[in-house]
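Posting this for the archive.
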Amino acid sequence: MYKTITIKAGSGGWGGPLTISPTEKCNKILSVTGGGIHPVAQRIAEMTGGEAVDGFKETLPDDEVLVAVVDCGGTARCGVYPKKGIYTVNIEPVGKAGPLAKYITPEIYVSAVTENDIFESDYAGHITQKVSEETKQTQASTAPEPKSKAQAKEEIAKVLKCKPSDLDKTFMRLNREGILSQAKHRRMHDTARYGNIEETLSCDYGNSDWIPDAYDILAKAPVLTA
């Protein structure tokens, strides 16, 4: 017996939700991820009653494919199946990208999907499956927490080995001198620098975008070199 499911975008994902229902003719879950059938494809097959198929080993007619599971980072593959009108589940957090981006719409495509983003539902897409407390905690723990300015300042200060209270004055002085706002850095690359900062900063190897502003900070800010 076939069942209807709803697939939502995971953390950092895009598109969806997709509500899909297998039929006698269209019930294959095509896994195009390499390394065999992906757990997300297997989960969709188990919940819908469909059949998971390794897309690298078998070729199927398009009208038999219910949903394609891909691991595309933004190249053509994430748009190939939407172009064919096939529901597409990307396990990577990618939105409208690649040469076939115009075919990628939230009605047919969803990304960053994990096994926890697949739910039993009715034909209207209303989720009927109860989400366990363990799943809720897992989803909450994987959601990134934004850092406050104070936390960011403490992390930078720790890296540069100075007091957080000294950062504002230091960076304001560097910005006034144009160090942090210069379009090009006239310093050498990290892999070729000399043994000490003074010798490194005394050399000019032409325009380079590679060197971090940290070299200028260390040279210009006594509070950071103490």
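Helices lie at 39-48, 77-83, 133-142, 149-160, 164-176, 197-201, 214-220, 222-225. Residues 182-216, 220-226 have pLDDT under 50 and may be disordered.
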